[in-house]
From TrEMBL:
It catalyses: L-aspartate + 2-oxoglutarate = oxaloacetate + L-glutamate. This is Aspartate aminotransferase. Residues 107-472 form the Aminotransferase class I/classII large domain. Belongs to the class-I pyridoxal-phosphate-dependent aminotransferase family. CDD domains: AAT_like (cd00609). The keyword Cell membrane does not apply. Its EC number is 2.6.1.1. Residues 56-68 have a biased composition (Low complexity). Residues 56-87 are annotated as: Disordered. GO terms for molecular function: L-aspartate:2-oxoglutarate aminotransferase activity.
């Protein structure tokens, strides 16, 4: 066995010049840190530590000796490999739940994350999901690995759910897909595959779900934005949206929210979707639909798939990522699917093979339980009907809360217009509140929503709606 010393020395010889430069720079700041620590201002100095170049990260990650790694990160004084790890900011959405849970104010409200609550503010498990689980439990199934592409029957059902039972390309096997770690996992895998096959950038709407940006950046893509929403009129900025699509380089990938746009709650009309489809076709774009709320826009999952189905009928070769977190209430089960429409069955299988190449070293294969639940429901017409009713029930409750919240704000005599709350659809109200107002809402009233003023209507209930309205009125009108 070679000694750790000689091992680490050998490994150091293979470290790339960028890494060596980082180590030198880091070593310099280490001595500064050591001095500054004694002077009590460690934090600021640590924050100035040089960013590790990605080429350096690659070298560190693959070096054969742990002593090399220690040497790379270690502080001269403490010897800790974690010395240079500064505290990262909390996640803008999930971090709100963490803060909410720590808050001991009795009337606190979490309208941050898009997770459905029943009218008593409790997480809601769809009764049809409970039924399916009972049946699954009786089957005494094993816990073997899934295949890399997940459960084939789940994927079949998921594809029928979004493309439609009668979709011609589905019947011709020109559509194929894989099970993913919910919507997020599917977005990341597709981002990586795009990057691998030559895409340098992706277009996302402005604004979009905040996590789209780090997902695609981490997948190696430059994230570009197209105009989507007009803050003045609180509505879709359609003419600028079309102009921006026309200006995209040929062949670009464009991310579209299939329905219930997050965070704005404003979707194109069917006529506007048609125009988007036409312009996308002229520019030979690759439309990539993020379908995270199918069923939550209109309450009817079939209607909510209209844009996806229109694009397929128009002859686009699209990709779709689906999440079953919201519509089936399976948030923590991480159930999703990623699929593509190709020219031939052979082509669709080739794409799937590449998706698998990215999944395997990433998380190997997806979890089974949630996929079994969705399959069980969608395989049975009765259960599917129950699902449709229960999903409709969730969408209707949210709709009712929109009307109540808007009316409560109007009754309080708010000087602002709150029309948009009832014009918008899906889980969120994009309130138009400023960052300062959102912070005041949190600090004075213990109401947690995202800094862009997005309120998850799924967390608004008959019990807290009045409190929320008064608080919003307080921070917007009375400030
Ligand atoms: N796409 C969109 C548009 C989206 O809003 C979410 C989740 C996802 C994908 C990912 O869902 P998954 O659970 O990975 O299937 N949005 C909510 C939750 C979150 O931020 O993770 C939200 O915006 O609150």
């Amino acid at each position: 066995m070679t000694s750790a010393v000689s091992n680490s020395t050998t490994t150091m010889m293979f470290i790339r010049p960028a890494t060596q430069a980082y180590f030198r720079q880091a070593a310099n700041s280490c001595s500064t840190i050591a001095t500054a620590t004694r002077g009590g201002s460690r934090r600021a100095i640590v924050a100035n530590a040089p960013a590790l170049p990605s080429s350096a990260l690659a070298s560190v990650g693959t070096s054969s000796s742990s002593s090399t790694q220690r040497r790379g990160f270690a502080d001269a004084t403490t010897g800790s490999p974690w010395e240079k790890f500064t505290m990262a900011p909390p996640d803008p959405i999930i971090g709100l739940t963490e803060a909410y849970l720590k808050d001991d104010f009795p009337d606190k409200v979490n309208v941050g994350v898009g997770a459905y609550r029943d009218d008593s503010g409790k997480p809601f498990v769809l009764p049809v999901v409970r039924d399916a689980e009972r049946e699954i439990n009786l089957e005494n199934l094993d816990h073997e690995y899934s295949g890399i592409a997940g459960c084939p029957s789940f994927v079949d059902h998921a594809l029928k759910f979004v493309y439609g039972e009668n979709s011609a390309p589905l019947k011709e096997k020109r559509i194929a897909g894989v099970q993913t770690l919910s919507g997020t996992g599917g977005l990341r895998v597709f981002g990586e595959v795009l990057n691998r096959f030559g895409h340098k950038h992706i277009y996302v709407p402005n604004p979009t779900w905040g996590n789209h940006i780090p997902i695609f950046t981490n997948a190696g893509l430059e994230v570009r934005k197209y105009r989507y929403y007009d803050n003045e009129s609180c509505s879709l900025d359609f003419s600028n949206l079309i102009d921006d699509i026309k200006a995209m380089p040929e062949g670009s990938c464009i991310l579209l929210h299939a329905c219930a746009h997050n965070p704005t709650g404003m979707d194109p009309t069917l006529e506007q979707w048609k125009e988007i489809s036409n312009v996308a076709m002229e520019k030979n774009l690759l439309p990539f639909f993020d379908s995270a709320y199918q069923g939550f826009a209109s309450g009817d999952a079939r209607k909510d798939a209209a844009a996806v189905r229109m694009f397929v009928e128009d002859g686009h070769k699209i990709a779709v990522v689906q999440s079953f977190s919201k519509n089936f209430g399976l948030y923590g089960q991480r159930v999703g699917a990623l699929s593509v429409v190709a020219d031939t069955a052979d082509e669709s299988q080739r794409v799937v093979s590449q998706l698998k190449v990215h999944i395997r070293p990433n998380y190997s294969n997806p979890p089974r339980h949630g996929a079994r639940i969705v399959s069980k429901i969608l395989a049975c017409p009765e259960k599917t009907n129950d699902f449709v009713d229960q999903c409709m029930g969730m969408a209707n409750r949210i709709d009712g809360m929109r009307t109540t919240l808007r009316k409560a704000l109007e009754d309080l005599g708010s000087s602002r217009s709150w029309d948009h709350i009832t014009k918008q659809i899906g889980m969120f109200a994009y309130s138009g509140m400023s960052k300062d107002e959102v912070i005041a809402l949190r600090e004075k009233h213990h109401i947690y929503c995202t800094l862009d003023g997005r309120i998850s209507m799924a967390g608004v209930t008959s019990n807290n709606v009045e409190y929320i309205a008064r608080a919003i009125y307080d921070v917007t009108d009375k400030k």
